[in-house]
């Protein structure tokens, strides 16, 4: 097997489930050593109360061909993040890939609710979880990443810069959180340029996260049955591994730096790099949303996966 990231060290902040888990596994497929962080372990539970754990993610990374290392971290706690980075430095003396995927806002957002009616504490907690965590992690991790040229920072968000600029994301708090992460990628790119390191924003499409599968009453094995609830979900959704493979493709690209400061989607990068989702397809969700779903057309994946 080809392991283009063998010898590389990655930190996936927020690797318990969803895009974080998919990214960690995809980096493992490429041979990387991946530190998988989050608050949910086999011995402690976050406020999600779900069964996924960072230990499971680390085991999946190792099974995929890499080396998975689970570390319990609350990325709002500066001391915990500093200790994590010190451990990575002590263990390896390098950090090549940082993926800021911490979010934790699914149970906080109130869709289609104006800012004056939205629960204020929940909205502010959402912003702290989506933005502060990324800033805290970058603050401590980037001094290690810039020691060697070629490092990559990925800010995981929802929506491309182009899409979010023209679309209200159904909640002022959510809209701000995801737009802020897009800008954070741009800002970090500017600060990393003297060190020949790269920062980008990356969005999955309609992702079949564990919570989304549960919402539609399906599993990864029969996700197409979700068409009974929403035909667009069955037409264009993607596994969490797809956006993870986008991260792995970026990290393995020797000409990566020309993308710095950019905003990309999993589907767009799949066209550029040629990787596929786990089913062999290349779903291009954000183009589909504009040209099919938002246009009010019937669900039809033809030409979009």
Protein architecture, described:
By secondary structure, the protein is an alpha/beta fold. The chain has a single domain (9-227, 238-287), classed as NAD(P)-binding Rossmann-like Domain (Rossmann fold). It is 44% helix and 11% strand. It contains eleven helices and seven strands. It has helices spanning 18-29, 54-64, 78-92, 120-145, 161-166, 172-192, 210-216, 231-236, 240-251, 266-273, 285-293; strands at 9-13, 33-38, 67-72, 97-100, 152-156, 198-203, 263-265. Strands 3-2-1-4-5-6-7 form a seven-stranded parallel β-sheet, sandwiched between helices. Strand 2 (33-38), helix 2 (54-64) and strand 3 form a beta-alpha-beta unit. It is globular. The mean pLDDT is 95.
Layout of strands and helices, then pairs:
Blueprint: E1 9-13, H1 18-29, E2 33-38, H2 54-64, E3 67-72, H3 78-92, E4 97-100, H4 120-145, E5 152-156, H5 161-166, H6 172-192, E6 198-203, H7 210-216, H8 231-236, H9 240-251, E7 263-265, H10 266-273, H11 285-293
Parallel strand pairs: 1-2, 1-4, 2-3, 4-5, 5-6, 6-7
């Amino acid at each position: 097997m080809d392991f283009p990231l063998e010898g590389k060290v990655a930190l996936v902040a927020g690797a318990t489930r969803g895009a974080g888990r998919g990214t960690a596994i995809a980096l493992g497929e490429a041979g990387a050593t991946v530190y998988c962080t989050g608050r949910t372990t086999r011995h402690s539970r976050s406020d999600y109360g779900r069964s996924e754990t960072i230990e499971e993610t680390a085991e999946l990374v190792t099974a995929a061909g890499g080396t998975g290392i689970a570390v319990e971290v609350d990325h709002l706690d500066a001391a915990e993040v500093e200790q994590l980075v010190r451990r990575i430095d002590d263990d390896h003396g390098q950090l090549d890939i940082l993926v800021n995927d911490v979010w934790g806002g699914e149970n906080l957002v109130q869709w289609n609710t104006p800012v004056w009616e939205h629960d204020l504490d929940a909205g502010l907690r959402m912003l702290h979880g989506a933005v502060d965590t990324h800033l805290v992690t970058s603050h401590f991790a980037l001094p290690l990443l810039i020691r060697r040229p070629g490092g990559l920072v990925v800010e995981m968000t929802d929506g491309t810069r182009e899409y979010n600029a023209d679309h209200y994301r159904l909640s002022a708090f959510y809209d701000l959180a995801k737009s802020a992460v897009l800008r954070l990628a741009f800002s970090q790119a500017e600060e990393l340029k003297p060190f020949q390191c790269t920062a980008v924003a990356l969005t999955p499409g309609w992702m079949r996260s564990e919570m989304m599968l549960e919402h539609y009453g399906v599993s990864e094995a029969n996700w197409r049955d979700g068409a009974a609830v929403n035909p667009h979900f069955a037409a264009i959704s993607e596994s969490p591994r797809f956006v993870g493979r986008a991260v792995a493709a970026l990290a393995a690209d020797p000409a990566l730096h020309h993308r710095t400061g950019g905003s990309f989607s999993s589907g767009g990068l799949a066209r550029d790099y040629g990787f596929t989702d786990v089913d062999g397809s290349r779903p291009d969700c954000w183009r589909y949303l504009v040209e099919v779903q938002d246009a009010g057309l019937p669900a039809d994946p033809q030409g979009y996966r």
